[in-house]
Predict the 3D structure of the following.
Amino acid sequence: MRVFSGIRPTGELHIGNYLGAIKQWIELQEKNECIFCIVDLHAITTPYQPERLQENIMNLAIAYLAAGLNPERCILFVQSQVKEHTELAWLLGTMTPIGELQRMTQFKEKKKKHPEYVNAGLLNYPLLMASDILLYQTDLVPVGKDQKQHVELTREIARRFNKRFGKTFKEPEVLLPKIGEKIMSLQNPKKKMSKTDDPQGCIELFEKPEEIKNKIMAAVTDPGREIKYDPKKKPGISNLLTIYSLFSGKSIKELEGDFKGRGYEEFKKSLIKVLINYLEPFRQKRKRLLKRETFIKEILNQGAKKARLIAQSTLENVRKKMGLI
Ligand code: TYM
């Protein structure tokens, strides 16, 4: 199976990105043909600092490798280095009704959040994402729940294109993790964990142990003291149970049994240990990678070369079908 996914280089990754996306990628790379992208052209649709973009790209590449992506088992590259992405996005835009783009939840949310910066790029964001996916004839797109709607639109675009111009694209399937498709904020468990929305509610992938401890101890819990999974009545504890389960490999049922009658504080202290132990090797690997900039640039250049070959072949076919050559 061909797998494609990407993350925006907008700052530090958090455990939501890891559990929703990267953790699946690491497993998929063992048995599939995987392509993972640093989507810099998507990152510039919201306010950003140009002088920090290259640093953010490098940091994301380091995060990919530190978390376990293996450049010998997957293609890693930067979106803007493969120009076919923007060209296909334009072509797809000529056959996508504006209404479909305006209906996207992410567009509506970002419009509300940055009313001073509602640019056409933000509206066209899903076209570029569809282009990322369709250029590689992708079978599977592993993402968190917030990106599901964009993958569904991608399928719709592929179907419409194939119907009008003849079979050209594969219709990709979205792949959500069985649990952890939406990790919630530690401060407001009814909202998605997001670095920009509330940093205190968010644990970064390379967070210092001391900070992990502070943030988990300060995490919002629910009335009562029972450790029980019930997202409606106990959103705080249910979110922490999900995180605990994914980082420990124990099922939620098992954890409910282990912590029966033991209270929130004991549960949180144990979760802190689990998190620190799991994330420490990532921090160590990142430290080593920070000194290897040339090596990382080489991985990204080689990745872009391989990606370009696949992208060019699809785009050539699209241009033919659309009467452009
Ligand atoms: P981005 O950069 O916002 O997020 C990267 C990945 O992390 C997942 N995620 C979460 N999962 C669970 N819980 C959370 N709290 C949480 N927060 C984020 C996201 O679902 C995503 O999988 N548009 C995409 C990037 C993109 C892309 C693509 C993805 C561009 N082209 C092609 C797949 C295929 C985005 O902004 O993700």
Observations:
- The chain has a mean pLDDT of 97.
